[in-house]
Automatic annotation (TrEMBL):
Pfam hit, one: adh_short
Protein's name in the database: Short-chain dehydrogenase
Highest classification ranks of the organism: Bacteria, Pseudomonadati, Pseudomonadota, Gammaproteobacteria, Enterobacterales
Residue ranges that the Swiss-Prot or TrEMBL entry lists as coiled coil: none
GO molecular function terms listed in the Swiss-Prot or TrEMBL record: oxidoreductase activity
Keyword presence, Oxidoreductase: yes
Family of this protein: Belongs to the short-chain dehydrogenases/reductases (SDR) family.
InterPro entries with a match to the protein in the record: NAD(P)-bd_dom_sf, Sc_DH/Rdtase_CS, SDR_fam
Record keywords, A-Z: Oxidoreductase
Recorded GO CC terms: membrane
Length: 276
């Protein structure tokens, strides 16, 4: 039995997603949208949320999701977000898994970035997510089960130029949810941190510049990144196996993560050289 338990830890437990109550926040586009499509094939009980009610309703129609399972709200309005948690709990009875995909990136140097932009990045990418996690956590503790899936970034593992506030907000997610995992392993609450590299989405179109305006360009690296559908499949596989952390993306980003772990000075040199 002891060896079997250790082997399960090493290999990873496989969760059966069928019938699980899963709430996807940030479901109207990008990775969140692709995740909803992927999860629907597992016959899960889905609730989908974002600010964009029209896009949510369109997605719900595509997957035959009941109208009451569409709960639009603005994640940065903290009281509204708390109310959304209570609506989901009232609708589903309990939440087996919350997937956070909402967020915004950044494209500006530190010296060009106004303070309010950092405030906005931290609020949307970190504090708003913490607010929902804190509101949902008591119900998970009560039923001794739950899973938070958090869309971070390789930028949460190491900072690069033009992304200082974005990297800070994603690093903060790691600190918070790693602490939550440690405190609530006893309650059978799991955390999966997803650290994508370059994914072929339009996230940089909405990235914040130094004055808070949208960047309105798509980075060439993203155009050559992996598809959102492949990224979604990797995330769902990680949920099933209750992985602690994954890095969907290309080899270059994964190499960067390991260079940062074992040869941080070398990575710093490579990154600085690229941005000279």
């Amino acid at each position: 039995m002891a060896f079997g338990g250790v082997w399960l830890i090493i290999r990873g437990y496989k969760m059966n997603l069928a019938g699980k109550n899963i709430w996807v926040i940030g479901a109207s586009m990008g990775i969140g949208h692709a995740l909803v499509k992927e999860l629907d094939s597992y016959t899960t009980n889905l609730v989908i949320s974002s600010r964009k009610e029209d896009l949510l309703k369109k997605l719900a129609t595509e997957i035959n999701l009941p109208e009451e399972n569409v709960i639009p709200f603005d994640i940065t309005h903290h009281d509204e977000a708390k109310e959304a948690v209570h609506k989901v709990l009232q609708l589903m009875g309990n939440i087996d898994c919350i997937i956070f995909t909402a967020g915004v990136s950044q494209r500006s140097l530190i010296t060009d970035t106004q303070f309010f932009v950092y405030d906005k990045l931290m609020n949307l990418n970190f504090l708003s997510i913490v607010n929902i996690a804190l509101t949902a956590l008591p119900s998970m503790i009560e039923k001794k089960s739950g899973h938070f899936v958090v869309l971070s970034s390789v930028a949460g593992k190491f900072g690069t130029p033009n992304r200082s506030g974005y990297a800070a907000s994603k690093s903060a997610l790691h600190g918070f949810f790693e602490s939550l995992r440690a405190e609530h392993t006893k309650d059978n609450i799991n955390v999966t941190l997803v650290c994508p590299g370059f994914i072929n989405t339009d996230i940089t179109m909405r990235s914040l510049t130094g004055n808070g305006e949208p960047y309105q360009h798509i980075d060439s690296e993203l155009e050559h990144g992996i598809s959102v559908d492949l990224c979604a499949r990797k995330i769902v596989k990680a949920i099933i196996r209750e992985k602690r952390e994954i890095y969907p993306g290309g080899n270059r980003e994964i190499i960067g993560v390991y260079l940062n772990r074992f040869f941080p000075r070398l990575l710093q040199y490579i990154v600085a050289l690229k941005y000279k």
